[in-house]
Design goal:
By secondary structure, this protein is mainly β. The chain is built from 2 helices and 28 strands.
Length: 380
């Protein structure tokens, strides 16, 4: 059975060589037909030592093809090393020329060969004369296998349990064994039956030596549970490999931003009119609105009501001095306990507040408020 198979491979080899002659491959037509007929009668011990039977050769890796039995006393114009698919019946795949060894290197017994991008399968090596010297001076290797290896890939992050917010930048990372393999990264959602589907193509293909990307979660992604799916060689199903997050992570709707600082005008709450406060005692002053920045509190002698119930509503009695109660910056809490001095002149007053910095809503930084009506300070 083995000799019959080798005989069939020899027939296939001769057939392919004849096809190569017709289509103009590297074999020389005239010499092939007869210049070395005498050499065809030479019995040769030429044999291929490696690759050996059952050996696997990986695409992209380098191996040493070796042979023995070259008779240097026999005139040769050189020889060729070719790769053939192990095919028993036509149509036969044309051979792949590995190398032509010239006469000057006739004693060479090995050649380092990097396996090119070939489809996986069974192959054998043939060593033949560069010019025709008959089937007795050729050698076939045992059948071996060329393997087009599939890379491995692993999603590192996110790997389960994370929470991502729409609109925020997140980082995705992975590892792939083949740095030349392109990698596609996808967002996988869950359907109603528990299966997954591609909800978003994050990147269709990126070189494997890049092992992470940053991604802004788009507004088109609905809140829910998701996985990250990474695929090596996404456009070549024969060599593709994939991995997904070990467990799901959560994408949430964008969180509403914090409201801007209040632009409500500052407003006096107390005293706001009608109160009677005694000199020498302590009373609370309070206000609402801006709670940051600098607030100045004055007690102005009241003269009359201007009739405007927003902002500064009173005119000042300039014959009497105002009382500076205080300036409050970082400690501004919206309230202050005012101890009225015994020397305060009795009469009607109103509280006037100034918000005196850029935290106020007034572009002129002079936003303020008066008590709605005057209050009275009396002697102790």
């Amino acid at each position: 059975m083995k000799s019959e198979k080798l005989q069939n491979r020899g027939v296939a080899l001769v057939t392919v060589l004849i096809i190569g002659l017709v289509v103009g491959l590297s074999l020389s037509g005239a010499d092939f037909l007869g210049n070395n007929l005498a050499q065809a009668q030479v019995s040769s011990g030429l044999q291929v030592d490696f690759p050996s039977a059952g050996f696997n050769l990986n695409v992209g890796q380098t191996y040493t093809i070796s042979w023995s039995g070259i008779d240097s006393s026999v005139y040769l114009t050189g020889f060729s090393i070719q790769l053939f698919r192990d095919e028993i019946a036509p149509p036969y795949t044309p051979p792949y020329l590995i190398v032509n060894i010239p006469k000057s290197s006739i004693n060479q017994v090995s050649y380092n060969w990097t396996v090119p991008e070939l489809s996986g399968g069974k192959y054998y090596i043939a060593i033949t004369c560069a010019t025709f010297c008959g089937p007795r001076y050729q050698a076939l290797s045992s059948v071996f296998t060329i393997v087009n290896p599939i890379p491995t890939i692993k999603v590192l992050s996110p790997n389960g349990g994370e929470t991502w917010e729409v609109g925020k930048t997140q980082f995705i990372s992975w590892q792939v064994s083949d740095p030349t393999a392109p990698v596609g990264v996808y967002l996988s959602g869950f359907d109603e039956f528990g299966g997954t589907y591609i909800a978003e193509t994050i990147v269709p293909g990126i070189l494997g030596q890049q092992s992470s990307i940053s991604w802004i979660v788009p507004s088109t992604v609905k809140p829910g549970k998701y996985l990250i799916r990474a695929v090596a060689n996404p456009n070549d199903k024969t060599k593709s490999a994939e991995d997904s997050s070990d467990a799901s992570f959560t994408i949430t709707a964008p969180v509403a931003p914090d409201p801007p600082p209040s632009t409500q005008s500052i407003k006096v709450i107390s005293p706001n009119g009608g109160e009677t406060w005694e000199a020498g005692k302590t009373y609370p002053i309070s206000w609402s609105g801006v709670k940051v920045g600098t607030v100045q509190i004055l007690a102005h002698p009241w003269l009359s009501n201007l009739g405007n119930l927003s902002g500064f509503t009173h005119s000042v009695d300039t014959t009497r001095s105002y009382i500076l109660i205080g300036n409050f910056a970082n400690e501004n809490t919206g309230s202050f306990s005012w101890s009225i001095l015994n020397t305060a002149l009795p009469g009607k007053y109103f509280i006037r507040l100034f918000c005196a910095n850029s935290q106020c809503n007034d572009a002129n930084n002079d936003d303020g408020d008066d008590s709605d009506l005057p209050f009275t300070i009396v002697a102790p």
